[in-house]
Every structure is written in C-alpha cells, then in structure tokens.
Specification:
This protein is α+β, with helices and mostly antiparallel strands. Helices cover 43% and strands 20% of the residues. It has 7 helices and 5 strands. Helix 2 (43-49) runs antiparallel to helix 4 and helix 5 packs across helix 6 (96-102). The radius of gyration is 16 Å and the shape is globular.
Length: 164
C-alpha cells in the first residue's frame, strides 16, 4: 500500500512511535528513515534529537505536544510495556522539555489535522494529514495537499527530485 502511494507521502508507526514502514516521498518529506539505526527510529525520538525535525515543523511544539499525548495514550493501554518505559526514560534524560511535557499527563488519539512544514528543498508546505489505524497498534500517517495548490505543486516537485 505504501509503495502505491507514489504522489502521497506516508509512513507507518507502531504503538511506541517506532517507524516500521515508509514510502519514498515520505522519506523525502520527513527524513531518510533507512539511514537511522532501527533502535533510534522512533518518531518521538526524532522530534527531540534530530535538529532537522525541529526545522521541518513550523509549529514544532504543537507537533511534540500531540505526539507525547498520543504516546501516553498508547502507554495507558499497555502499562507494562518495558520498551515504552525505556523510551520515556531515555528521552527524559536527553531533553528536559520532554520530561516536562510527559509529566503533563495529557492523552490524545491520532486523527487528522493540518501542519505547516518548512522543507529545506521545496520550501513551505501546508499539508493535511490523516491517520489510519489497524487493530494491532499500527498507524499509517498520510499527508496530502489541496490539488493545484502551491503545496501540491511543491510535493510533486519533491516526488520528482526523490525519483532521481
């Protein structure tokens, strides 16, 4: 399914925000997931440890707030998940902001919304995102732009560049 979404950036996360799959345009938009060691390939971790992620999201703090609230929801569903506890401990040590935000105890489910991204190659993108969740805790995030909009044209350009 991911590979069939040629003109639509997409990636799949597990319940701990581990990135388990992506398509070429998803990697071109967000980061080269394949270049990240698997044990570090967690969306929540990338938000806090990869400076490019802070640059990518125009409203980084709202992205982080939602990601933490979603991770906390998954944590509540699996309170004995030692790997998830390890991720929280590591990020709390790496970044005091994570620790403070985690302590707020807000929860949320993944749904949909709009984000403004600042891509280093194609510039500003206003993208709608949606989340498709299966029964096993995997969530596919799909990004779209209004057809004919500047963001849509920039996504098409990014797709062309990523094919080269």
């Amino acid at each position: 399914m991911l590979d069939d979404l040629v003109a639509t950036p997409a990636f799949v996360m597990g319940p701990r925000t581990e990135i388990v799959g992506w398509n070429a345009l998803g990697a071109a938009l967000i980061t080269d997931f394949a270049a990240i060691p698997e044990h570090e390939r967690y969306f929540i971790r990338l938000l806090f440890t990869d400076p490019a992620m802070r640059e990518l999201y125009a409203d980084w703090l709202s992205v982080v707030d939602l990601a933490i609230a979603q991770l906390r929801m998954d944590s509540a569903a699996n309170p004995e998940d030692e790997k998830l506890h390890e991720i929280v401990r590591d990020l709390s040590e790496i970044d005091p902001d994570f620790h403070d935000l985690w302590s707020s105890h807000e929860v949320a489910v993944r749904g949909s919304g709009t984000k403004i991204l600042w891509h280093p190659v194609v510039g500003e993108l206003t993208l709608d995102w949606g989340a498709l969740t299966d029964g096993a805790g995997h969530t596919m995030i799909i990004w779209t732009a209004e057809r004919g909009s500047a963001s849509h044209l920039r996504l098409e350009r990014l797709a062309e560049i990523s094919e080269d």
